């Protein structure tokens, strides 16, 4: 077995309606590039990127999922192992924003209770086609106590920032505990740091 | 070379007969349909049971089917729900349909529901085979009624959003008012073509829409676009214009027949059924265990589950894994399989075994990446290996 080249492993998941740009967001982050020539994701896809945070090498294992309803059984099976979930909508598609509530419900049903969440309003470079105002995005995020960014995979706006911020939030939760413990698969983070506390106040 | 020519002659002789021996045709198609001289589109029409073996019946059948398809377009796209008016009599409008009609039978209700399906199809056909330019090119045979309708009958128009132009107004005191109209437009490859023309992706959009309308229990599921794209590409690149002109209706019916066999993979509620995708992924897993236990064990120990890669492989008949020419060769064999689609399992097993050394060496993430992005390979080697596996199975069972 090769020696581990990282200190921590975080598993992240990208979800959201079909066509909102999940694959492009991930591609921008992992390969720092943009292309419109992506075929639709069927089932589940996968990328790895190692980042450094507070002197720790963190390996991000990121799962990219198919958006259409048909694939939900296969994609929801990944929710459980995820430590962070990025919910993506498209600021030019009203419907994809309305569905954020549905995706949140999905997370409640299938993910760990203390999973870190973040909402991304993607395609914010397409100002002339905007259908969802920034305020509405912020509003729903505030309502659910979740972080929020408007992003553009195309113009490279806020993509890296979003991923790093999410990783940092997960790091906050895991710090103080034996880092090696979370290296291996199937991590369940301590319930005592539960978000539930935030929710009731 | 001599054997290649002999193969060509064999094909020609077989196709020339008044009644084509389907068994024999499948037998020789299994080894690949040569790109020259023999028509892949014709062989696929036969193997997918769109054309019957008796040639005499072709012309009547084709005329009937193609006319039927025209009717579908008329009824479901050109003038859906249009009622012929009476002879000048006044019509009672009390119960007339309108966009806010809540009646489930309302034409307007159907229209809005259709558009949801259409929106999904529209997104997907615009990302069809982006590595080739074919689907962005105009078709030689557009649907006249639609492309000359001033845009109103075009399907993508229904889901295309229109926006009110907004402008930034800047005013400093009583000074100059600056109005900045921001018009930024990215060049779009899958842009609709002007009046009188349509691109191949628009044709595929229409076929998928009609399929979804006619199969409401199944509707449109992502991935169908990939499968239909391959068939349409083959039919629409037919060197013979007499066939090429009818690529659209013929694709519709050939695709419908193919879906009849693999439909269950696309239906969520059948995932656990005997004919569903989970069962098929299990079959692959078992086949791998029998053929290469080390690799099977390695993937098992890494908890690399078959659905991470084989869900896509199997539902899409490998259409996202290989470059188009390679895929066509693989599909020749898949369609020629007398027990469709059991040969697919052997091809997938052969694919995994081909990567054996790397898989045994790699860790989990590298292996997922490897299996999800299958490296270039000589497909002939793959087919040979898969045939060996199939033969072996036959011998021991």
Automatic annotation (TrEMBL), chain A:
Pfam families: Ras (PF00071)
Keyword annotations from UniProtKB, A to Z: GTP-binding, Lipoprotein, Nucleotide-binding, Prenylation
SUPFAM superfamilies: P-loop containing nucleoside triphosphate hydrolases (SSF52540)
InterPro entries: P-loop_NTPase, Small_GTP-bd, Small_GTPase, Small_GTPase_Rab
PROSITE patterns listed in its UniProt record: RAB (PS51419), RAS (PS51421), RHO (PS51420)
UniProt keyword annotation of Transit peptide present: no
Record's keyword annotation contains Nuclease: no
Family as reported in the entry's similarity comment: Belongs to the small GTPase superfamily. Rab family.
Protein name: RAB
UniProtKB/TrEMBL annotation, chain B:
Keyword Isomerase in annotation: no
Domain Rab-GAP TBC span(s) in chain numbering: 34-338
Pfam family, one: RabGAP-TBC
Gene3D superfamilies found in the cross-reference section: putative rabgap domain of human tbc1 domain family member 14 like domains, Ypt/Rab-GAP domain of gyp1p, domain 1, Ypt/Rab-GAP domain of gyp1p, domain 3
Keywords: GTPase activation
Keyword Magnesium: no
PANTHER family the record matches: TBC1 DOMAIN FAMILY MEMBER 13 (PTHR22957:SF27), TBC1 DOMAIN FAMILY MEMBER GTPASE-ACTIVATING PROTEIN (PTHR22957)
Listed InterPro entries: Rab-GAP-TBC_dom (IPR000195), Rab-GAP_TBC_sf (IPR035969)
Name under which the protein is recorded: TBC
